[in-house]
Amino acid sequence: MKLTLSPMFAAIGLAVGLATSAQAQVTGNVEAGAGKVAMCIGCHGIMDYKTNFPEVYRVPKIAGQNPKYIETVLGEYKKGTRKHPSMRGIAGSLTEQDIADVAAYYTALGDIKGAPELAATPPAAKADVAALLQKGACVSCHGDNFSKPIDPSYPKIAGQYPDYLFAALKAYKDDTHTTWGRGNPVMAGMAKQFSNAELKAISYYIGSLPGEIRTVPQGRFR
Predict the structure, then answer these.
(1) Element at 50 (helix H, strand E)
(2) What is the pTM of this model?
């Protein structure tokens, strides 16, 4: 028997298909992104710049980060699953195209021609830290040298500011606050296995490694 859709359902199906197609066609443009980062460079374009909410730590290095991860994070701030008043306000003002352009810009900003390839195996951690990393299965998601994530929506974390990593891991442990915390169930499950002292040890080891992400000083607004 041949099934025939009514005109109404056919129209709905067409609209959904077009919407999905339009979302799939959002591609980041580096040059366009350069004109959309004025709200970003005041923090992410200053070496060792620190925020003081919800505690004092350096804002993360994002130049050279995976573009899909940057898009994912901005989307989470926009939805509120990542909580930070400033970041939510900024992300909420961006369209999907803006987010893709900003992500493309920051990925390209970290590309240094002639930079040496990172070793697949990072310098060995002390035995106690190595045991923590194995318990958390960190490399299973973040990949070789913690810089080759298995999914493009996961971050490169080698060489990230250790105090930022520590603050981020603690945020996954407690998502009960209205203005800070992170709602990722996978990371929450991982972080809740550890004491804060253990999370700090993990953070400072990973932050000490050579990595592909960096802060690129930007001395003027665009």
Answers:
(1) strand 50-51
(2) 0.86
